């Protein structure tokens, strides 16, 4: 038995998220079906994180086991050829053999997301489905200041989907940086793990601060309330990118 | 009569280029139809440059005349609303009133293009239709050196489409810079004007240099030959972006 670890990129637009769904296309299904035609048996793909409908990935990590031994480079080329033939918006950026105690989800020690806001009046063309357009001028510095109240170990109940299945709402947020790049506002978030909708919920409230609808302190108050009803806004999925999953021993 | 100057962005994928075509959708038709519903009469849109099928624009300039006087901001909002309703991948980034001697095409003194190469093995997902993927490692420094032979005033017959209608193949190329940005190779070209397919033809030959199939000097030889048959390769349209048109008196 060989365990193959994949680095994946996808355009989230056509998918109902990573996880296999009975009622629509998923990234997991796309890759499992491609892999099955390559290795000749059913496989189960495990990823570092689930993602919502419309959320993109630049560097998701995932693994599956196979009885078949193939050079990892040939496997990634074969997977990409099949994904392409099937018209899937998923690509394998890298493939390596890993030991059987390496697990894409359970071994992961850090997850990094990026959220892209296009801060402009005009509708999006090339970036349609790839950013959240906000017409009103955003104060990115105020957003960054407000974000710092969320960094550290907190009960993130306010910033958690009602469907979230995590046992505890207490998480440690390592980083939440907001910066302006021309007419874009970029938010970077990193933590060992996140609650369901946590990044989008945090971004939604920061956007209210950026638009001047919330004072900077209101984000800290919303956190302290530990009440989902205190959430101002959940940002739409199309601006969110899963950027990187980190593992012990990697630089 | 009022002359309105527009700054336009578009995703070239669904269009047969800027210019109106009998047999398919064009950017010109999209905007003229939107404008006609706003001002209530037929208009003719003039742009700084034509573009081919699949070529994108980040900052094309164009103008049209109207009997109707509208605040430019309201006009751009109305145009964007109509373009969006019509499902067009075109946006008006800016709209200003200009004097009647300002002409988007004839007053333009400089045009800048960017060409994006995604230098990676994996098929493109988020960038599909927005870059030229080249799997083999490109030597961007060699490409930049080769490009410098094209800068200046030359007869660009080799780098000109057989369908080009310009009276002369002599053009002055102000800038042709190649740089690597991670797994992308970016080529920037600027000139008062370009011949049909000139940027794509130059990029095609530079890619041959980057892949090691052409020595650096071969680009200068192809130029000196003044022979379209000496062209190595015409780069595909999806990597090309019209970035900027410049006019006298603008910073």
From TrEMBL, chains A, B:
Which CDD domains does this one have? PseudoU_synth_EcTruA
- SUPFAM superfamilies reported for this sequence: Pseudouridine synthase
- The record places the active site at 52
Q: Pseudouridine synthase I TruA alpha/beta domain location, by residue?
A: 10-106, 146-248
Specify the domain of life of the species encoding this protein: Bacteria
EC id = 5.4.99.12
InterPro entries on file: PsdUridine_synth_cat_dom_sf (IPR020103), PsdUridine_synth_TruA (IPR001406), PsdUridine_synth_TruA_a/b_dom (IPR020097), PsdUridine_synth_TruA_C (IPR020095), TruA/RsuA/RluB/E/F_N (IPR020094)
User: Is Isomerase tagged as a keyword?
Assistant: yes
Record has Protein transport as a keyword: no
Provide the alphabetized UniProt keywords.
Isomerase, tRNA processing
GO terms under biological process: tRNA pseudouridine synthesis
Q: Name one GO molecular function term.
A: RNA binding
Reaction catalyzed:
uridine(38/39/40) in tRNA = pseudouridine(38/39/40) in tRNA
Q: Where does substrate bind?
A: 113
Top-rank EC class of the record's enzyme: isomerase
Record function comment: Formation of pseudouridine at positions 38, 39 and 40 in the anticodon stem and loop of transfer RNAs.
Family assignment? Answer: Belongs to the tRNA pseudouridine synthase TruA family.
NCBIfam families per record: hisT_truA
Subunit annotation: Homodimer.
This chain's protein is named: tRNA pseudouridine synthase A
Q: Which organism is it from?
A: Novosphingobium olei
Gene name? Answer: truA
């Amino acid at each position: 038995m060989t365990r193959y670890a994949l680095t994946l990129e996808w355009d989230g637009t056509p998918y109902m998220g990573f996880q296999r769904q009975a009622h629509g296309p998923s990234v997991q299904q796309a890759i499992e079906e491609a892999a099955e035609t390559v290795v000749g048996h059913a496989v189960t793909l495990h990823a570092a994180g689930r993602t919502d409908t419309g959320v993109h990935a630049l560097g998701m990590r995932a693994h599956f086991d196979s009885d078949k031994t193939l050079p990892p480079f040939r496997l990634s080329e074969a997977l990409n050829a099949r994904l392409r033939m099937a018209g899937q918006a998923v690509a394998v950026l890298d493939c390596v053999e890993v030991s059987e105690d390496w697990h894409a989800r359970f071994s992961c020690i850090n997850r990094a997301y990026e959220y892209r806001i296009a801060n402009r009046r005009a509708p999006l063309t090339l970036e349609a489905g790839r950013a959240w357009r906000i017409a009103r001028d955003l104060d990115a510095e105020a957003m960054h200041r407000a974000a710092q109240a969320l960094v550290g170990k907190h009960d993130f109940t306010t910033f958690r989907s009602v469907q979230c299945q995590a046992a505890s709402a207490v998480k440690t947020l390592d980083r939440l940086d907001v910066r302006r790049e021309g007419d874009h506002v970029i938010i970077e978030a990193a933590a060992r793990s996140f609650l369901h909708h946590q990044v989008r919920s945090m971004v939604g409230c920061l956007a209210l601060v950026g638009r001047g609808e919330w004072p900077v302190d209101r984000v800290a108050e919303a956190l302290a309330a530990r009440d989902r009803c205190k959430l101002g806004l959940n940002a739409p999925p199309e601006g969110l990118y899963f950027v990187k999953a980190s593992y012990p021993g990697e630089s």
